[in-house]
Amino acid sequence: MSDTVETPEVDPDEPKGLRKQLADAHAELKVYKTKDREAAFTDAGLDVSTGMGKAISQVYEGEVSSEAITKFAKDEYGYEIPVEETNPQVTEITQAQARLDGVTETAGSVADPKEGDVLAKAEAEGDYATTMAIKGQQLADML
Asked: Does residue 61 fall inside a structural domain?
């Protein structure tokens, strides 16, 4: 005796089989429509999980296109999706700054000599005029 139970296969031509096929087709269609709808909202700049995007997605029943959704949001709620405008000057400045940063990294920088280094060098070389000028400036700065 076998422990497995065989389930009878439903003939697709019988009414039960046709109903099951119809139900499966409707479920699959609903999944595709949901994905298309979410994609249209995302293309319109709205997040269907939070905020205004969620509110609009719950009441919107029109055409599934980003243009129609944007028009609906503006007409019904006065909501305009924020659009980032790219100023050509900003783009140009950003690119130029990136090139400048690259050149600065590869070229290396020459540090300005510090006053202490200049004083030490002048004393080591015996340059009393420079030494006295630096020390005099240090005294003047202190006063």
From this structure: yes
Q: Over the stretch 19-69, which tens digit does the pLDDT of each residue have? A: 888 999 999 998 888 888 888 888 888 888 888 788 888 888 888 888 888
Q: Does residue 94 sit within a domain?
A: no
> Which region holds residue 51: left if phi is over 0, alpha if psi is between -120 and 50, else beta?
left
**Domain region containing 134:** 112-143
The structure tokens listed for 127 are 């340059």
Residue 81 tokens, joined: 């999706």
**For 44-127, where are the alpha helices, taking DSSP H only?**
51-59, 66-77, 88-107, 115-125
Q: How far is CA 38 from CA 4, 14, 56, 59, 92, in A?
A: 44, 36, 12, 14, 35
Q: Are residues 23 and 72 in the same domain?
A: yes
The span from the CA of 42 to the CA of 109, in Å, is: 47
Kindly state whether residues 21 and 67 are assigned to the same domain.
yes
Residue 40 within a domain = yes
Over residues 6-21, the pLDDT tens digits come to 555 556 567 777 888 8
Specify if 107 maps to a domain: no
Listed range (68-77, 81-90, 94-103, 133-142) with the worst mean pLDDT:
81-90
